[in-house]
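SAMPLE LOG
Freezer: B-3
Tube label: C17
Construct: single chain, 126 aa
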Amino acid sequence: MTDHILVIGYGDAGRAAVNAVLASQPDARLTVLDTDYLAVAEATANGATAVVGDGRDRCALDDAAADLADRVIIAVPDDLNAFMITRAVRPMNPDTVIVVVIREPENHVVFESDGTVTIHNRPSGR
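STRUCTURE (predicted):
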């Protein structure tokens, strides 16, 4: 059985996550969820199944099979939205590993209560 990995957000961090997964696990079932049609088209061209939608929306998460994901990587550009997405995903899939790319390191404590893993993505120039 291959992993099912859901990546929410296909900007620089999401793209890097998809590329890393494809490099290390070429047989992984990879789904990308993003609000931008061009990002979804790019993710599809990169080999992922892609869905247009907002990670805070239950219907979009259903379309992206968040309830079946072994891992969920949240790589959106705003920590508050990342937190809201985490809160939408966790009840759907209580056992999944959630990794969140955060922008501000002090926000780590906001995510750690349910075992979410955070990675601080330092913007260039800082």
